[in-house]
Prior knowledge:
Layout: E1 16-18, E2 21-23, E3 30-32, E4 60-62, E5 66-67, E6 74-75, E7 80-81, E8 85-86, E9 93-97, E10 101-105, E11 110-112
Antiparallel strand pairs: 1-2, 2-3, 4-7, 4-11, 5-6, 8-9, 9-10
Domain Protein YjdM N-terminal: 4-32
Domain Protein YjdM C-terminal: 46-112
InterPro entries: YjdM (IPR004624), YjdM_C (IPR013988), YjdM_N (IPR013987)
Amino acid sequence: MSHLPPCPECDSQYTYEEGVLLVCPECAHEWAIDDPLRDDTPGSVIKDSVGNVLQDGDTVTVIKDLKVKGSSAVVKVGTKVKNIRLVEGDHDIDCKIDGIGAMKLKSQFVKKS
């Protein structure tokens, strides 16, 4: 039996693997097992799915269909998102998508345009 790291959000010891993610059953936090695109140190650099450095105001393209939680809407692959804002946390891009509204995205699902 392998030893998995505790949840970075709530320090729960009951984390489990689900595909390429680790999941916490207590707080529902999900994170990548080995995420080379993200460094969680303060002032860290946020990179897109192919390693390009992202900055506030950039335009990105969604690389995977993303279901919108709590809605039947889907952000389709190829959707351009303009004027992003980088924030701290698991979903590190704050943006506004035409037809859907304000939402947060993970940098691993976008590519810099």
